[in-house]
Amino acid sequence: MPTPLELQVQTLPNSPGVYQYFDKEDVIIYVGKAKNLKKRVSSYFTKNHENGKTRILVKKIVRIEHVVVDTETDALLLENNLIKKYRPRYNVLLKDDKSYPWICIKKERFPRVFSTRRVIKDGSEYFGPYTNMRTVHALLDLIKELYPLRTCSYDLSQEKIDSGKYKVCLEYHLGNCKGPCEGYQHEDNYLEDITAIRNIIKGNFKESLERLQTMMMNFASEMKFEEAQKIKDKLDSLKNYQAKSTIVNPSINNVDVFSIISDETHGYANFFKIMNGSIVQSYTTEIKKKLDETDKELLELFIVETRQRFNSLSREIYVPFKVDVGDEVKVTIPKLGDKKRIVELSERNAKYYRQEQFKQIKIVDPDRHVKRIMAQMQKDLRLQVEPRHIECFDNSNIQGTHPVAACVVFKDGKPSKKEYRHYNIKTVDGPDDFASMEEVVFRRYKRLLEENEPLPQLIVIDGGKGQLSSALKSLDVLGLRGKIAIIGIAKRLEEIYYPGDSVPLYLDKKSETLKIIQYLRNEAHRFGITFHRNKRSKSAIQSELEQIPDIGQQTITNLLRKFKSAKRVKESTIEELKEVVGNSRAQKIYNYYHSKQ
């Protein structure tokens, strides 16, 4: 006998629609859309989901409701509206924590043009919304400079103007208004300016440029050079504004551009609106993943929500990959030329936004920053757990002398220098990197096991397959094989090697995972070389002092403690030497150095 839930799934229609999942408290926990409701909903209960959050979601589903719609576009819009209304726990919800500014051309005689955050359905024209106030101010400043308009809120009916009810204000005397309140400007002339302003707001500069050009030439031909210069200044302002916003050829008109880049936990999406080859709107946001959503799923959600939010009626969109957003919109995936470049520019904006977010998060929320990097490393390196504790080993020997090794420790992606360790190689004669690595790894983890210290989640071996195999031998002996992830990194091409796999992994050269591994490897190299250099220097100093007849190890130690180096011992006076080692030894040391000169 099927359960009520199984019965609901079995009786779903094979139609496009929207489904809603309810928990035992009868709260909506997830809303989704589907081309085929039965097929999509069934997949939740028949698939073995890799993502842990999806498994938890499925366990919590007690009841299902669905709404059948005519088209996929209707499903997209309904899904988006239901998510915004109910804010289900497992749905991605785009940020919408502010009202956006619009430019309003007021429905009135001698219309005013101003910015507002309130859209009132009174027949006025609203353009936008704009994603930031700077764009609005720049546009309104340009309009004010080109076309003097009234800013007062008087009712400028013809009767009131004729009766002399109003007097011109300071704006008229400053040249910012032509005085329609006293009949100094006719309505037809005013509306011509409003038509030009409407075109500029829409991104169509052609008519305004032509009109100003004609006016300038007319004034010049009439010898009114001051007036012609004023028009030229306005023409330059308009051209300058247009030049700042034009990025592609003018044939790209009334198009929306969307792109997305993502990491393990978030997506970063960008939107451009293009009119007559100019970007008239730009918007970028961060989207937090809830159920390991794909870039395609996130971008589809972003496209539907953004077009609705910014009141876009464009019939075509440019995107970097195929998306399903209904039949009413033409989806273009540009392959080359200006169209391709505009999508790349959109992606670049998303990447810059992501970098800025990372910098801010690093300061204000370091825990989230660490969690994101650890999750990315786990995914990139195909690990079972996040590598919160990593240890890296490096051998150092020059011409076979003084073989040493270094172990550096990283916690949460950062060096933990107090836990760094140096090792003198004890069981290996001569320069044998493989045997040295085997010895050091064995000694390190034998000690950690004996002292019951925490083991790392990841071991990085500086070297290729040979060094990795040597380290593995020690892990086998200690019974740690398979309990700690281990990789080798070859120097030349940054190849990552795994046990038993001859084919290396190549990470993206710009990835944070590779940068951390390179930092680890460089730290191990630096730490090992410093130890090796100090050892060689100390050895060289001691070997020079050991050449002096009848001078023992304790005398050499006393000399170095006082004079710090063999050079200073050589340069010291007989009296200084006597104070440290007595008369007899002082004379032998002094004679050794000075009889050779």
UniProtKB/TrEMBL annotation:
GO CC term, one of those recorded: excinuclease repair complex
Domain GIY-YIG: 14-92
Gene3D superfamilies referenced in this protein's UniProt entry, alphabetically: 5' to 3' exonuclease, C-terminal subdomain (1.10.150.20), GIY-YIG endonuclease (3.40.1440.10), UvrC, RNAse H endonuclease domain (3.30.420.340)
Record-level GO BP terms: nucleotide-excision repair; SOS response
InterPro entries xref list: GIY-YIG_endonuc (IPR000305), GIY-YIG_endonuc_sf (IPR035901), GIY-YIG_UvrC_Cho (IPR047296), RuvA_2-like (IPR010994), UVR_dom (IPR001943), UVR_dom_sf (IPR036876), UvrABC_protein_C (IPR050066), UvrC (IPR004791)
All copies of domain UvrC family homology region profile, residue ranges: 261-475
Keyword Protease (UniProt): no
Keyword check for Cell membrane: no
Function: The UvrABC repair system catalyzes the recognition and processing of DNA lesions. UvrC both incises the 5' and 3' sides of the lesion. The N-terminal half is responsible for the 3' incision and the C-terminal half is responsible for the 5' incision.
Protein name: UvrABC system protein C
